[in-house]
Amino acid sequence: MFAKNATRSTEPVSMRPFFLIWSGQALSLLGSSLVQFALVWWLTRTAGSATVLALASLMAMLPQVFISPVAGALVDRWNRRLVMMVADGLIALAVVVLAALFALDKVQVWHIYVLMFIRAVGGAFHWPAMQASTSLMVPEKHLTRVAGLNQALQGVGSIVAPPLGALLLDLLPMQGLLAVDVVTAVLAITPLFFVAVPQPERTVAAEGTSPSSVVADLRQGWRFMRDWPGMLLVMGMAMLINLLIHPAVSLQPLLVTDHFGGGAFELAWLQSAFGVGIVAGGVTLSAWGGFKRRMLTGLLALVLNGVGFALVGLAPAGGFPLAVGAMFFAWFMNPIVNGSMFALLQDVVPAEMQGRVFTVLISGSGAMVPLGLAIAGPLADGLGVRAWFLAAGVAMVAIGIGALFVPAVMRIEDKAAETPIPAETTPATPLGDSAAVPAPAR
Asked: Which residues are bridge partners to 2 per DSSP?
């Protein structure tokens, strides 16, 4: 069996089934963003401790690093529609329990940690199931546009959730706001009862989902990436970019206060530029679709992304408007980078391997976040916050330009059909709604 479109025998005629699922997931994302804002604000107001907020972030990150690889192997074995339904349902149930604790005035900080951990576990299963299903429900020519739409949706959430969450906190008790998340989760689950999510043809180990077979799946997924130099380099690039970008996001408040001498108003402007840039970039990619070679689209956008970060770092103390404009430009390019790369992976990675490949990427990139913060903190303390933005920008420009001259990266789309899936399992009956139906019911 070979990599490119090995299981996509026909293109879907209608994208209506996909967008029925996507619309529900979009509403759920908004509900989750509202709850995330409300819980972070509650922790800030209740504890007022940076350590408490850091631990909350850690609870949300750990499953991404440690559970995602196993989740990817299981997603490739299980019915993806059921995975999404159970993940959304588990998160909604946890929110119901937390809402009851708030109503009884029994909530404690550790309850928030538990909820964030459960949400992250659910996301570790839901995200690869949705991404892997997208490649079988969306025609190849529209994958980049859908990826751009997903990036824009995330930007909309980052813009809308804080002010809407603040408004709802004034109008509703905490348990009432949590109920909004439960309602949006129900709206996300409902279409899954009526829409068939196609399953890829695949081989499944004879022992089913025993621990040894899951480990075998993980080995197979890692060997798939290891034996494809271009794919391994893409993973390395993703890890480096994640290491550079996340600390920059976390250092924005210090950039505003220490360098520009601003306050909450200036921080709001900078964060608005962040959110608006993501939306604009995602919408642009969705409408444009990128160059024929998705890798070229992603790498050129990465270079410009780095230019934007470098300009933020170079902005003088009196040049706050320049920093806002540069921040918008940097985050305008970011969804074009991510959207192009996700669409490329959905196209070239075989459907039955996507869960494992996506989650290996997630866990590897997620592991870079604490490392990046550990490096950026001392650097910013010693040289100033601007130094990290400048260093991150220069590094992204160098990565993007350098990759343009690496044949293994630039030819990844050409080499897709030549890359065999490493043999690790024995043939078995495909799992899913129906026997490896490549296109959803219309």
From this structure: 420
Query: Residue 203 is encoded by which pair of tokens?
Result: 């081989």
Residue 130: CB partners within 8 Å, gap ≥ 6? 21, 25, 80, 84
Quickly count helices (H) and strands (E) in the chain: 17, 0
Give pLDDT tens digits for 289-324. 888 888 999 999 999 999 999 999 999 988 999 999
Of 210, 219, 207, nearest to 69 by C-alpha is 219
Domain range for 138 is 16-197+222-418
How many domains, the chain?
1
Of 293, 295, 313, the closest CA to residue 237 belongs to: 295
Show the tokens assigned to 382: 């010693």
pTM of model > 0.85: no
Report which of 307, 313, 314 is spatially closest to residue 331, judged by C-alpha positions.
Answer: 307
Please state, in angstroms and rounded to a whole number, the distance separating the CA atoms of residues 138 and 150.
Answer: 13
Cα–Cα distance measured from residue 193 to residue 39, given in angstroms and rounded to the nearest whole number? 30
As a whole number of angstroms, the distance between CA 213 and CA 207 comes to 7
Distance CA 387, CA 392 (A): 8
Question: Is 311 a domain residue?
Answer: yes
The residues that bridge with 420 in the sheet, in sequence order, are: 2
What are the structure tokens assigned to 163, written together?
A: 């002010």
The 10s digit of each residue's pLDDT in 335-390 is 899 888 878 887 888 877 776 777 677 777 777 877 776 677 677 667 777 888 89
Residue 439 forms part of a structural domain: no
Q: So what's the pLDDT on residue 329?
A: 95
How far is 356 from 218, CA to CA, in rounded Å? 7
For the stretch 172-210, pLDDT in tens is 888 888 888 889 889 888 988 888 877 766 544 434 445
Place of tokens 């494809």: 228
